[in-house]
Amino acid sequence: MPKVTIDGHTIEVPDGTTILQAARMIGGDVTPPAMCYYSKLKTSGGYCRTCIVKVTKGSEKDPRPMPKPVASCRTTVMDGMEVQNKTAPDLIDARNGVVEFLLINHPLDCPICDQAGECHLQDLSYENGLSKSRYEFKRREFEKIDIGDKIKLHMTRCILCYRCVKVAEQVCDTRVHGVMNRGDVAEISTYIEKAIDNDFSGNMIDVCPVGALTDRTFRFKSRVWFTKPMDAHRDCSKCCGKAVLYMSGNEVLRVSARKDMWGEVEDAAEGKPGWICNECRFEKKEVKDWTIEGPRAIDRHSVIAQNKYLDKKNLKIDVSNQKQIQEKAHN
Amino acid sequence: MGRKLLTQHINVPGIRNLETYRQHGGYDTLRKAFGMKQEDIVEEVKKSGLRGRGGAGFPTGLKWSFLAKPEGVARYLVCNADESEPGTFKDRYMMEHLPHLLIEGMAIGSFALGCRTSYIYIRGELMYVYHILQKAIDEAYAAGFLGKNVMGTGWDFDLFLQCGGGAYICGEETALIESLEGKRGNPRIKPPFPAIKGVWDCPTVVNNVESIMAVVPIVRDGGDAYAQIGIGKSTGTKLISACGHLKKPGVYEIELGVPVEEFIYSDEYCGGIRNDKKLKAVVAGGSSVPVLPAELILKTANGEPRLMSYESLADGGFATGTMLGSGGFIVMDEDTSIVKNLWTFTRFYHHESCGQCSPCREGTGWMEKLLHKILDGHGTLADVDLLWEIQSKIEGKTICPLGDAAAWPVASAIRHFRSEFEEYVRNPSAIRKDHHYYRVNNLNPELV
Q: Do domains B231-333 and B338-447 have the same CATH topology?
């Protein structure tokens, strides 16, 4: 079991754990943001570069620091590794740079975006962005595409995290979409706008960190913060049937999979991600279809989260360090 | 006159054909290799000190010895012939004239590494070279140098020639492997390195054309003899593709350690600057390495003469040095505009970025647009600072070295020629009347 120290917090983790996973085990501010990494999807991560960290000590055996910042989502922890995230100003500067790159071609149309309020990029730019853009040129634009009658692809907002491609590869039966072209005109596409017709294609909406893939049955119905999220389940022959209903009064406006504090789909059973099928997501929009369990508790990336900051109390914090921080805050 | 190990027979008429190639000692080295132990061949390459000729300069022998050798798993040797670095054209020239030298090198390398199948991944634009190579491979199959029971030794070896789609990024070894497997040419995230998991998830060595060709003289004459050529850790000969404002541009085989001044001005090599103009700047190793002004390329910061070797060119780090890179030697005379030249390079990297990771995908386009703005005379001094900041935010933050390759030229141009950028900002009208070699005719009015 290798031991890793991230920003002064030491934790022992199983072999093969990545730095990001270890940081998530510690929790709180130590965790680097991740836009493309998705623990439930194999081979995801490494593309967005927001999770970069500075490795100041490679391992007990080879204490040399790593020459460049590394993507924490794809770098495995070594015994004795020391990592800096929030404590390295040059790294924060580098991450701010990455966020700036992500934003230069993003339309920043949050007021009319369905993802607003639960958008990872919004959070990220709030935490790491500049107050104004230094990009003065025309932003890249794409036509909006309907992929199937239930999903809208708004490519202009896409940050090319490849998550939806991995969903198509690993969750759906066949992959009918992918990345076309290259460089800054690369786009997610079905090539001939072929409808994505697949029982699990709706999960692309859940994994999308921005508002590039949105639910056409929910588009412009309501702002998410006016809805009440409720845990609910139903017997479904295709999927686990565990979902979150976004309700307004007795109306079910949207159905999504249950997401954990990192914005990832929760496990329905041990080791089995709770992806939901398109029937549950798009067709079952009546209260009578569902057994409602109660209000949904925590969802990190959502303004509608109840007890949004509650989880931060459960941190495995190095108390001595915490005291110092408190003292500093008081002084 | 320096020794020629690769190009000695290049001007023999008909050397492309197997018959003529054999008359000049062709495939004798392969026969010699079969008489050696496989480990001994790797050992000879290690002893020779041969460094990867593709640009990074990683010792080839060391790379070979890193190859994982699990039981019952195939291994592959892949030749990276996707030469697309602007300013580099040595591999194309060699493959065009001496296709059999590459095939012989591939056979020796594959034998030494225990590969049964190997690939040559050639750039899509080089279709005529593809046909030359394919013809040579067919000849070699017919003569029994490839295929079943090579030269009666009982060793079966297949060599395939795979044509790329014409993307610069596929010269990056993991992107090359992806492309070779028929996928989108995106670089993989390392580790695992190709030596552990490469083509079809099997251990793989990817080598540049010139590195593989150099294996032939190394095995023929022995690693020690090869190591005696050159200077320090830069051993052997190197092909330099010299271009730009030279009297005699072309591909030259030099012994590493030739002074840069001699290489540019002597009649044996480039013969001086065209029209006897003054030297302004040199990009010493293909477009991605830092550009150096004349005084720094001829002499290091310590005042020692700079030599054509990995160490001497890198002397002084990026502050006052550069890299030997792939040997694409681009020379610019006093009339050249560094800013326009930089714009050309940046446009190239913008076009070739694969779009996988964000700093390179977004940053390369941003840099190009900013340079465009400056060239159009609408730039400000803040734009130059912003340009500097963008490149520093790209460098080292990307999956593959393309991000670095896009950032280094920008950094070095601003570092050494900042006054020129400022001239464009301060006095745009005077500059725009001036006719430069790299005249920009297709300015996009939308961005003005």
A: no
B18-228: CATH superfamily: NADH-ubiquinone oxidoreductase 51kDa subunit (3.40.50.11540)
Query: What's the rounded Cα separation, in Å, for the pair B34 and B45?
Result: 15
Which chain A residues touch B447 with a CB distance below 8 Å? 137-138
Structural fold of domain B231-333: Ubiquitin-like (UB roll) (3.10.20)
User: Between vectors from CA A15 to CA A11 and to CA A18, what angle results, nearest 5°?
Assistant: 70
* Contact yes or no for B22/B253 (Cβ under 8 A): no
List Cα–Cα distances, B135 to B18, B126, B130, B132, B189, in angstroms: 10, 14, 9, 5, 36
Distance CA B356, CA A109 (A): 24
Question: Are residues A128 and A205 located together in one domain of the fold?
Answer: yes
Note the pLDDT of residue A200: 87
Per-residue pLDDT tens digits for B362-417: 999 999 999 988 888 888 999 999 999 999 999 989 999 999 999 999 999 999 99
What are B105's two structure tokens?
A: 């090198």
Closest by CA position to A99, among listed B397, B188, B396: B397
Q: Which of A49, A51, A157 to mutate to test the interface with B (most CBs of B within 10 A)?
A: A49
Return the domain boundaries, chain B. 18-228, 231-333, 338-447
How many domains is chain A built from? 3
Q: Provide φ and ψ at B155, rounded to 5°.
A: -95, 125
CA distances from B188 to A55, B105, B175, B209 (A): 21, 27, 6, 22
- Would you say residue A176 lies in a domain? yes
pLDDT beneath 70, residues of chain A: 191-196, 298-331
The closest of B162, B196, B201, B168 to B182, measured between CA atoms, is: B162
Average pLDDT for B42-47: 93
Residue B51: phi and psi, rounded to 5, are -110, 145
Asked whether the beta carbons of residue B365 and residue A48 sit closer than 8 angstroms, the reply is no
Bridging pattern class, strands A178-180 and A70-71? unpaired
What was the pLDDT predicted at A303? 56
Listed residue (A161, A175, A84) closest to A124, CA to CA? A161
A79 plus A128 within the same structural domain: no
What pLDDT, on the 0 to 100 scale, is given for residue A301? 54
Q: Which of A45, A67, A102 lies nearest to residue B358, judging by beta carbons? A: A102
